[in-house]
Amino acid sequence: MKPQRVLLKLSGETLSGGKNVIDNASLQNIAEELKEPLSHKIKFGIVVGAGNIWRGAGKEIERVSADKMGMLATTINAIAITEILKSNNIKTVMLSAENVTDFYETVSVQKANEYLDDGYVVVFGGGLGKPYFTTDTTSAVRASEINADVILKATQVDGVYTADPKKDPAAKKYDKLSYKEAIDKKLKIMDLSAFEICMKNKIAVYVFDFYKKGNLQKILNGQNIGTIVS
């Protein structure tokens, strides 16, 4: 069965293009990749990380404050994605757990699902609005709230490997994994709390190379070009 409702998890680096904190060409690439799936009426929620802006800090900034800074950084990224999609005539709304500006609405399950039903892309910012939770966990929670069929985790590699393929030429790619295998092998796909939520709600996680043009649509067409964890 092809997914009809999807949670797309983007890293902060997806926006940077390896050059800037937020790169316009990288933002435009996100919009281009979404256009064809949206034409087929696929419903998209998006969660974005903050690695291009903030990755936490050492002992000088305590954990709760560092996490709050990270949540604000995801909000900046979410605003950028929302604006680039709107500029491409894609109906988009941003909902955030961090209610600090007039740029967006506060997130709620009802709002998110109503907007998705009306054909909007829903961009979630601000994480879960609480410290100690990663954007992986945020993705699992938001995917559960919108009844997503799958979480599509956008990366710079074409799936999950036994080792880092950039460092180990003997690394082998997994086509499929169970949640238990991914946890037992300590594969760095998502954190444990995110996996637990996905397992409980039976949401598959698909890891793929977002940077290769057309890959998003290929996955939605059922082509096995990454690694699926279910």
Question: What can you see in these coordinates?
Answer:
The structure is a single chain. With 230 residues, this protein is α/β, with parallel strands linked by helices. It has one domain: Carbamate kinase. It contains 7 helices and 11 strands. The protein has helices spanning 24-39, 63-87, 109-117, 135-145, 179-184, 192-201, 215-220; strands at 5-10, 43-48, 92-96, 105-106, 121-125, 150-155, 160-161, 173-174, 176-177, 204-209, 227-229. The strands form 2 sheets. It has a 9-stranded mixed sheet, with helices on both faces. Helix 1 (24-39) packs across helix 2 (63-87) and helix 4 (135-145) runs parallel beside helix 6. It is globular. The two termini are 14 Å apart. The model has no long low-confidence stretch (mean pLDDT 89).
Please render the helix and strand layout as text.
Blueprint (H helix, E strand, L loop, with lengths): L4 E6 L13 H16 L3 E6 L14 H25 L4 E5 L8 E2 L2 H9 L3 E5 L9 H11 L4 E6 L4 E2 L11 E2 L1 E2 L1 H6 L7 H10 L2 E6 L5 H6 L6 E3 L1
Parallel strand pairs: 1-2, 1-6, 2-5, 3-4, 3-5, 6-10, 9-11
Antiparallel strand pairs: 7-8, 10-11
Helix pairs in contact: 1-2, 4-6
